[in-house]
Amino acid sequence: MKKYFYEFLKGIIKENPTFVLVLGLCPTLAVSVSVINGIGMGFAATFVIVGSNIIISMFKKVIPDRIRIPCFIVIIATFVTITELVMKAYSPALNRALGIYVPLIVVNCIVLGRAEAYAQKETVVNSLMDGVGMGVGFTLALILISGIRELLGAGQLMGYTAIKGFEPAFVFGMPSGALLVIGLLLGFFNILKGGRE
Amino acid sequence: MNIAQFLTIFISAVFIYNVILSRFLGLCSFVAISKETKPALAMSLSVMFVTTMSSIITWFIYQFLLIPFHLTYLRTISFILVIATFVQFVEMVIRKISPPMYRFFGIYLPLITVNCAVLGVAVLNSDMFFVNGKAIPGSFLYSLFQGICVGLGYTLAMLLMSGIRERLDLCNVPKAVKDFPLAFIIASIMSLSFLGFNGFKF
Predict the structure, then answer these.
(1) Cβ of A27 and B195 within 8 Å?
(2) Could you state, in chain order, the average pLDDT of each consecutive group of 10 residues for chain B (202 residues)?
(3) ipTM of this complex prediction, to 2 decimal places
(4) Which among A32, A121, B157, B162 could disulfide-bond with B34, CB atoms 3.0 to 4.6 Å apart, if both were Cys?
(5) B75, B184, B193: best mutation site toward chain A, by most A Cβ within 10 Å?
């Protein structure tokens, strides 16, 4: 039981996919304009990671080694298509906000990376916990980045004006601000990790 | 189909909505490979080739397979499978024709499959140039041209970044921001400067 909890926890802090493994940055920066978009993308990605981890772990003895990457891609793409269709049906506004980045979850390095590095070697339950941990870590990272960007770039948080009388700096809503925020956050976590010079 | 549309595609794909600095597609390979100019150039040329060819192939698949049989919900799966197969095929051809070139590319070639830019441009084409399930006139040429221009934009950003990072190698950099964080901060300044191209109209 404790081992499962460890697998889950490691995805959040020790091997956080965004800040430690530095994977899957394309959608992270693109959708983190507002916290709601960030949470939506986080949930979608979590569903895909968990689903594909489980299926790949179940079939790991059956998939031939030479064509494993296309097989993984088919499995992941299936889950992404499910997510895409569900989103189009039940939350079209979120789908429009996330745009082309929903189908792009297929090539999100986190999903393929976990499949390659973990799911094809470990048991189903381990892979499930790892997937959930990675997904939660990814969602938390998204909330952090989009929180900063929405607060400084639009003066709002989840649509509510957070600080009165604060003129927001638009640059944080733009791509330039996204890159700046992730660069500074990575540097900050580097300092936390191992002393600075 | 008019010339102004082509110019708009070029300006927006290369400058205003630059693939890397504005749309964030291909960011992983961007920060990982842009440390030196030679690998950066090799990577960007191969990406340009793959984006162009996959724009062509995915257009045909969308127009003659997915739309007539009402299978557009299979867009993601079919596009990414086609791209993966094509990259594998290119790798085999290069390995046969010219082993030195294959060794030169190394691991970069298989990495292009998961490059967001390739799938991104295919999805962009099918979103932009197909309205209500039908292709707008000239959409094949628009898609092909957008594939080329996305590759050009990728190359431009990579060359700029590798030039800067090669010089940065000789400077004293705080240990905390070495490598990745500094690359992102530089990319942010580059992206800011590219903002200046906004408002370009014909």
Answers:
(1) no
(2) 84 88 85 82 88 92 86 88 87 84 75 85 88 80 92 92 88 80 89 82 62
(3) 0.81
(4) B162
(5) B184
